[in-house]
Amino acid sequence: MRLSRLLPRALRKNETTIPVVRMHGAIMASSSPLRQNLSLTAVAGPLERAFSMKRAPVVAISVNSPGGSPVQSRLIYARIRELAAEKNKKVLVFVEDVAASGGYMIALAGDEIIADETSIVGSIGVVAAGFGFVEAIGRLGVERRVYTAGKNKVMLDPFQPEKKSDIAHVKNLQEDIHRIFIDMVKERRGGKLVDDPDIFSGMFWTGGPAREKGLVDGFGHMGTELKKRYGDKTRLVLMQARRNLLGRPVPAVGTGSSVGAQLASHLPGSIADELEERALWGRYGL
Known about the structure:
Elements: E1 17-24, H1 40-51, E2 58-65, H2 70-87, E3 90-100, H3 102-107, E4 112-115, E5 120-122, H4 134-140, H5 164-189, E6 204-206, H6 207-212, E7 218-219, H7 222-230, E8 235-238, H8 259-282
Parallel strand pairs: 1-2, 1-8, 2-3, 3-4, 3-5, 4-7
Antiparallel strand pairs: 5-6
């Protein structure tokens, strides 16, 4: 038996250990213990442990997300960049099925973005969607009663007719978020982007066109690519969220809500959350 086998893996010569953080799913700030959406709360712990591995030359992040909350997307992006600067670590992002909208915003945290040729990439835009039930409640004989202090407190109420002023306000908000998103892409991708207005139109592409436009740096798969760069003895270690006795991830950042509030928020909204998540994936044919 070789003596090297008796040593901890981190001390073995010629073996490189690389931490991997998975960022998969729709991006939503759900506080429910039963849903595993992608949020800063969900990934804070794994990120901290990944960047704390002193001997690791790089942190690898696997992204597979159709987007969702722009706030959570930016929080995750910002945390990755903060840790990368603090720990002086390079970040490699590997795109799986899709890195679109907020998913691509997170991918921007990578010093390099590597995708599969069939990955879906882009969708640099902002969308808001909902339903209107004005005619439905009329047919059912339901009377809508709302009392407010402040004339704009029921803006875009789905049970009341739309107002042009409300729509204009929402579009202004979307333009603000879109501008921030565009600035992030330009800052992170720099001179790699081609001069193509479609890049910021909300359009999305497969890996080939995405690379031509400068949205990704190349093609490859995590294991193969990392061994090519760091040697055949490269070992990947998945950073997982800590779990409770029931096997469910324990949030690394407190949500500030009680267990009762978590359960209450999950019950009535679970169907709507599920539909929203399915709509996000469905937008890209997944």
